[in-house]
Design brief:
Elements (H helix, E strand, L loop, with lengths): L5 E6 L5 H13 L3 E6 L9 H8 L17 H8 L2 E7 L1 H9 L5 H8 L4 E5 L3 H5 L1 H12 L3 E2 L3 E4 L5 E5 L3 H16 L6 E6 L4 E4 L2 E3 L6 H12 L3 E6 L10 E5 L3 H12 L4 E4 L6 E3 L19 E3 L3 H8 L4 E8 L3 H11 L4 E6 L11 E2 L2 E3 L5 E3 L3 E2 H19 L1
Parallel strand pairs: 1-2, 1-3, 3-4, 4-5, 8-11, 8-13, 11-12, 13-16, 16-17
Antiparallel strand pairs: 6-7, 9-10, 14-15, 17-19, 18-21, 19-20
Helix pairs in contact: 1-2, 1-8, 3-5, 4-7, 9-13
The structure holds cytidine-5'-triphosphate.
The site of cytidine-5'-triphosphate has 14 residues, from helix 11 and strand 16.
Length: 402
């Protein structure tokens, strides 16, 4: 998405300026051309020389210096850019933007900007939550500025709360998603992805679970978002971060996943069910930790859980419905049966016992199987690539249906 894109990065004076250096490097690695504009205060934290070296371009710092690369620099930069990103964006620059103030090179350039603006607020929690800052942010959004919400965590001032600049990698994902929503092949589509395993409690400290890490489903959600889709990820417990530009609902049990999926299903265009769902749940969940008894065996009676995918299949209208089949034997026969039983448009079948496939690996070896018996076998590849080929297949099916 960023290949050949021209980005003006506005850097304002917050402690997170050091992250903006890494951000420039990452944007360039993805093929973007970056020109940096620094405020006077930002230069107290990092010198323009650092940004010059890392961006490969002169850094603009003042309206009044004579060694400018462009004539009437703020206007030239404003016209040159495909997008403006302000990171970190202090409460001060947000306030100036909201009031239309133009008292230095960055604020003047932003006022003259023709291209979209993304701001990444970063400041102390009190400043961020201050009603005036929130009003300024709301006003900027009303005027079409895109705001990347700050992360919550430990802040340089010693407090913990909202106001941390997200990691440069996340900002790059966000910018990618932003461009994808303008140009990606999945823009305008609403995609529901489920991921990771569900857990069924036995008592307050134990549960029945499975080995799913969520890597496959998270890769699908991330790639769909990067291709411009509006993605809702319904996820069981996972150690993975929620991908940028993805809305997530965190669930634990199969019943919770079912409820979240049923509520969203009607408004979805595509549903991809990569979650490893617990088929059974303990009939009785103990209020207190079950204590060791003198018997050698413990019997836990399990009741059958609803089949979420089958339920969605029975309600399917316009949606493309894709399931996964994790098998240890009779891969194709079992997968074929699931396609029919669950009314799917496609199933992604994988033998979870094969090396380089299945749970907690970064690669997968899958087969795409369709209701008419058509089969496409993919070689071993990273889960991100599997995700993209899967989304290509979804887009083909949508075209055929239209
Ligand atoms: N699935 C579901 N709800 C369930 C079980 C499975 O939605 N209660 C979905 C999974 O997310 C996956 C597909 O159905 O997309 C197949 O899951 P899998 O565990 O392979 O098959 P099951 O239908 O559970 O059958 P079995 O466990 O007998 O193989």
């Amino acid at each position: 998405m960023l290949q050949g894109k021209k980005i003006v990065l506005g850097v304002t004076g917050g402690i997170a300026v050091y992250k903006a250096v890494d951000l420039v490097s990452r944007l360039r690695k993805q093929g973007a051309e970056v020109r940096v504009v620094m405020t006077e205060h930002a230069q107290e934290f990092v010198t323009p020389l650092t940004f010059k070296e890392i961006s490969g371009n002169q850094v603009a710092v003042s309206m009044w210096t004579s060694n400018q690369e462009f004539n009437v620099e703020h206007i030239s930069l404003a016209n040159w850019a495909d997008a403006f990103v302000v990171a970190p964006a202090t409460a001060n620059i947000l306030a100036k933007m909201a009031c239309g103030l133009a008292d230095d090179l960055l604020s003047t350039t932003l006022l003259a900007a023709q291209a979209p603006i993304i701001v990444c607020p970063a400041m102390n929690t009190g400043m961020y939550e201050n009603a005036i800052t929130q009003e300024n942010i709301a006003k900027l959004m009303q005027h079409g500025v895109t705001v990347m919400p700050p992360a919550v965590g430990h802040l340089a001032c010693g407090t913990t709360g909202a106001g941390r600049l997200p990691e440069p990698e996340e900002i790059v994902h966000f910018i990618n998603g932003f461009f994808a929503q303008c140009t990606g092949d999945m823009r305008g589509l609403r995609v529901l992805v489920t991921a990771a395993g569900t857990r069924e409690p036995i008592d307050p400290v134990r549960f029945v679970g499975n080995r799913s890490s969520g890597k496959m489903g998270y890769a699908v959600a991330q790639q769909a978002a990067e291709r411009g889709a509006e993605v809702l990820l319904v996820t069981g417990p996972s150690a993975l971060p929620i991908p940028a530009n993805v809305k997530a609902i965190k669930v634990e049990t199969t019943k919770e996943m079912l409820d979240a999926c049923l509520e969203a299903f009607g408004s979805m265009d595509v549903v991809i069910k990569a979650a490893a769902v617990a088929d059974y749940r303990p009939r009785d969940v103990a209020d207190q930790k079950i204590k060791k008894k003198t018997d050698d065996a413990l019997t836990v009676v399990m009741d059958k859980n609803p089949d979420i995918l089958k339920e969605l299949g029975s309600r399917k209208e316009k949606q493309i419905l894709v399931g996964f089949a994790a098998e240890t034997q009779n891969l194709l026969a079992n997968a074929k049966e699931k396609i029919i039983k669950k009314n799917l448009d496609m199933i992604v079948a994988n033998d979870v016992t094969a090396a380089g496939a299945g749970f907690n690996t970064d690669t997968n070896i899958v087969k795409f199987l369709y209701p008419d018996g058509k089969l496409r076998s993919l070689e071993q590849m990273p889960k991100t690539e599997v995700a993209n080929l899967l989304l290509d297949a979804v887009m083909e099916m949508r075209q055929q249906k239209m």
